[in-house]
Specification:
15 strands; about 25% helix
Amino acid sequence: MVTKVFLCAIFLVVEIYGVAKTEEDNCDLSGEWLESLKVTRDIWKMGFHRELVTTMECGRQSPEKLHALLVQNLPRGVFVDPYQLASLQQDTGLQALLHSKVDLEAPAYESNGLSMFVYPKRDPGHPGHLQAVLPIHGRYHRPSSGQGWERIEIEPPRLFLRANGCAQHLAVAPPVLMDAPCSGHNMSMCKWMEVQLPQVLQASEKDQRHISLELPVGDWSLAVPVCGGTLLVTLLCCVLIANAIQRHGFQ
């Protein structure tokens, strides 16, 4: 009798484990919700100091413990401030990791592009949305001849996903795997799987894969009048100061 009860208990444990394992396998990253995944990118603010905003709409059928990683490459015309990133990490929870040092003072023609990891976080107002707001800054460019503006194009990021406690299998075979930090706060390495971004990335209600911003640059055609005017004003001020000293002396 005791043996039968013991065998029944073992059978129940195995059955429960099998159900749990099946549920785990069913929360993988190959579900139909991937087909409805929508990524929106936009540029906020004006001038030299902007915000690169990436929003993921995952839908309600996505895994609850879904994590996303964006591998973002920035051209040499813009940069991110590592000190600002460290401050925002404490104030707003922004998670971003740079791969190299950043020269904050170098102009665009003496700089290189940079690559970084950005971890979107869940939007409290929209449970199925993940969003990353990355502050970017424009570099100074060489003066142009009459154009006045420099267009900077930012390529789309690579998207990687992982889900805690789920069997992570993609519909594509073989999946593209990458070892990367689990988060901006946790330097432990995790397995991330690349997911192809939707064919259309929306930016400012325009269908395009790349988004761009325009930065003002100097105009070579104004070099002579600007330098001449500056020199005349400087000489005039020097004459006025010398005249005042001659009349009143040093007191």
